[in-house]
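To the wet lab folks,

You asked to see what we're planning to order before we commit. Fair enough. Below is the target structure as tokens, and below that is the sequence we designed to fit it. If anything looks off to you, flag it before the synthesis order goes out.
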């Protein structure tokens, strides 16, 4: 991550294995993003509720990392920059591989594609 770790705390674990807000209100997500500063896990901007970007705006925590298996890229909401490298964040680095995307399985509507942004 080009010379800065502002907005990143590698020692903080993720808040859970799914979107915090979707899990609390019965929603569902397409893909997951993890706040690199506090560990909040939220749903991506393609998801119906876009909780990761809402968290970034509300908290002032600008940097997220993909929370999808096999992905390690970062995004900075302030600079609108995609970064393909950065510090290794605390484990786990993604949701469980057996957890489907979209998910969670029991809350995804059959016509889920029509709800994506």
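Sequence we intend to order:
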């Amino acid at each position: 991550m080009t010379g800065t770790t502002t907005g990143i705390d590698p020692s903080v674990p993720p808040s859970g294995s799914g979107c915090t807000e979707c899990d609390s209100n019965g929603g569902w997500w397409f893909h997951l993003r993890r706040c690199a500063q506090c560990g909040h896990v939220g749903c991506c901007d393609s998801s119906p509720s876009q909780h990761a970007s809402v968290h970034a705006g509300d908290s002032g925590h600008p940097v997220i990392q993909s929370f999808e298996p096999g992905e390690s890229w970062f995004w900075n909401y302030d600079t609108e920059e995609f970064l393909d490298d950065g510090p290794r964040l605390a484990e786990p680095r993604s949701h469980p591989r057996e957890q489907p995307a979209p998910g969670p399985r029991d809350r995804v509507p059959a016509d889920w594609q029509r709800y994506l942004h």
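Structural context that might help your review: Residues 5 and 87 are 8 Å apart (CA to CA). The mean pLDDT is 94.

Thanks,
Computational group
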